[in-house]
Specification:
The chain is mainly alpha-helical. It folds into 2 domains: about 10-110; about 140-195. It has 9 helices and no strands.
């Protein structure tokens, strides 16, 4: 195989990936996700970034679920995944062109302007497999109180008392409403920073 410009997992990681080792699969995702997202954005700059992110996440999640299909002897894993990603991005690209053409007037169709594509949200990245792995990685970088607060937020908990019960075990509460609000806002910023570092572009990882 030709040398790749992408950072690759080790041979041992790839061997364990194919075997379905969940710890190694997580490590491989952590290595590949940011690189694949950056590549896709550069390759298809006219497509909406959230759509590109969705495609990359879905392909990677499906590859992890179907880990036995990948053969490390035949191609780099990035080559394998980019082939799958490209097929889907080309489909989105053609759909964007078709939609733009159909929306234009006959005069515009005869004298088309350079296209600008703003795809509607065809599909949201709600893949539970990928989301679970993301928050597992986040949890490794949070302290104990942050992990418990994040767990409540992910469950959609609205009761202030539930948050206060956790916060009260770790610190002295002086202003219940303000203390909980400030902690949640700091936590959101931290999660967002981690998401960006990992190559995510979505701002709605936490929904309230």
């Amino acid at each position: 195989m030709a040398e790749s410009t992408f950072q690759q997992p080790t041979d041992q990681q790839l061997e364990d990936f194919v075997k379905g080792d969940p710890v190694i699969i997580d490590q491989v995702v952590h290595i590949l996700l940011p690189q694949l997202y950056r590549w896709a954005v550069q390759k298809y700059p006219t497509l909406a970034r959230d759509e590109v992110q969705s495609v990359v996440n879905q392909v990677l999640a499906e590859a992890c679920r179907n880990h036995v299909r990948y053969d490390p002897r035949k191609a780099h894993i990035t080559t394998y995944l980019i082939g799958l990603i490209t097929l889907r991005l080309k489909t989105l690209y053609r759909a964007a062109q078709k939609a733009k053409f159909e929306e234009s007037t006959p005069e515009q169709q005869e004298n088309p302007l350079p296209p600008v594509y703003h795809l509607p949200s065809i599909t949201k990245t709600e893949d539970q497999f990928e989301r679970r792995r993301f928050f597992e990685r986040v949890g490794e970088r949070l302290d104990e109180v942050e992990r418990e607060i994040l767990s409540l937020m992910l469950k959609g908990e609205k009761s202030q008392d539930e948050f206060l019960a956790i916060l009260g075990r770790y610190q002295c509460i002086t202003d219940p409403e303000s203390d909980v609000k400030n902690l949640k806002e700091r936590l959101k910023r931290k999660v967002k920073a981690i998401a960006e570092e990992m190559g995510y572009s979505k701002d709605d990882l936490l929904e309230e």
